[in-house]
Design a protein that fits this description.
Length: 375
């Protein structure tokens, strides 16, 4: 869409300063995006080629960090330092980047409950979460800048221990190091430690986690999707934030609006193309449509909406506090200062206006009938 290039009519909430910047003639020649290998609306919009379509007439190149070999550029996936860049994926790197002083803004959230499995061996006498008392729980210990896998595992275990009324000090936490020559602990590495008896339980998630559990014949002790409290289900994968380089919003809010607008288009497209959505998400996850269905549910295509609702922000804020408490963030920051609601608010207003201007289907049929009726 080039709607914002041709006509930009923002709601009254936008300030005069932003209105002046919308008219700014100089635009960057490149926009960047990055996403994690998990189902995200941004990733689906990218696979459909919508960003290239949107900005082709402006001669703005659309580049993804995943296809760039420059380590300085690729590091922006975590620290989000690139001008003109967008990101959607796990929230731990997004929160970590902001806590490290990255000049970013949170402009949207997507909540998609994914499989969060606590797995044990099939021959173990561990049948209830209360049986984890006194057991050895695996925590990956990676060599990357921010260990989001460790953060996710710890949060998953804490939620389950709370269900079993077990205090964290009543279990043993075992650090699992990567295989020789590797930087990250894979699910295969965790599974080998579990099957060899080195640990009693591991945490895995998503399509890859579901696949591992089936292939290795591991027993599912608990899936956090079953927990009724979304605040306890919140983890690195939910909610998934869309963040943008704040300077781009200050300099060229129209570009931010147009980019985000294409992400919002995914919601309707996915509902109309459910099988294609599973196929795309499987490619994104490096998995198969069947494992994606099991990991995210058959209603995945209907859950591609973007929001900044109070409940999603509360879940993200509580998880931020958890990360800070356990040393994953170097400093605290005010969530309210991070959130920029205007892009989403503007787009929602414009979309509702366009819908209101469209004729009612019944009215359109009546008008058509009048036109084609014989004299």
């Amino acid at each position: 869409m080039t709607y914002f290039k041709r006509l930009f009519t923002p709601p009254k909430e936008l300030t005069e300063q932003i209105l002046r910047k919308v008219q700014q003639p100089v635009v960057p020649d490149t926009l960047w995006y990055t996403r994690c290998p998990v189902p995200t609306p941004l990733g689906l919009a990218a696979k459909l080629g919508w960003f290239e379509q949107e900005f082709a007439a402006d001669a703005i190149r659309i580049n993804t960090l995943q296809e760039n070999a420059d380590p300085m550029l690729r590091s922006s996936h975590l620290d989000h330092h690139l001008y003109g860049s967008f990101r959607q994926g796990g929230n731990v790197p997004a929160l970590w980047a902001k806590a490290n002083g990255a000049d970013t803004l949170l402009i949207g959230l997507n909540w998609l409950d994914e499989a969060q499995f606590i797995l044990v061996r099939d021959d173990q006498t561990i049948n209830h979460v209360s049986d984890l008392a006194g057991k050895n729980l695996a925590l990956p210990h990676n060599q990357n800048q921010i260990d989001h896998a460790r953060a996710g595992s710890l949060k998953g275990f804490y939620a389950v221990l709370q269900l079993g009324e077990i205090r964290p000090e009543q279990v043993q936490w075992l650090d699992i190091q990567p295989d020789a020559g590797a930087q990250t602990v894979t699910y295969a590495r965790l599974a080998s430690q579990l099957l060899s008896g080195q640990v009693d339980a591991i945490f895995v998630k998503g399509a890859k986690g579901v696949e591992l559990a089936h292939q290795q014949g591991l027993k599912l002790l608990y899936d956090l999707r079953q927990h009724p409290d979304p605040l306890l289900r919140a983890n690195n994968g939910a909610p998934r934030p869309i963040t943008v380089d704040a300077a781009l919003w200050r300099d060229h809010p129209d570009l931010v609006l147009r980019f985000l607008d294409r992400i919002l288009d995914v919601e309707d497209w996915a509902k109309q193309h459910p099988q294609a959505t599973f196929d795309y998400m499987a490619q994104e996850s490096g998995s198969t449509p069947e494992w994606v269905r099991q990991a995210y549910g058959n209603d995945l295509p209907s859950k591609q909406g973007i929001s900044l609702s109070a409940d999603l922000l509360a879940a993200l804020s509580q998880y931020k506090d958890f990360l800070l408490q356990h040393g994953f963030l170097p400093a605290n920051f005010d969530m309210a200062d991070w959130v920029e609601p205007e892009p989403l608010k503007t787009l929602q207003w414009l979309r509702s206006r366009r819908r209101a201007m469209q004729p009612h289907p019944l009215q359109a049929k009546v008008q058509t009938a009048v036109v084609v009726s014989p004299l």
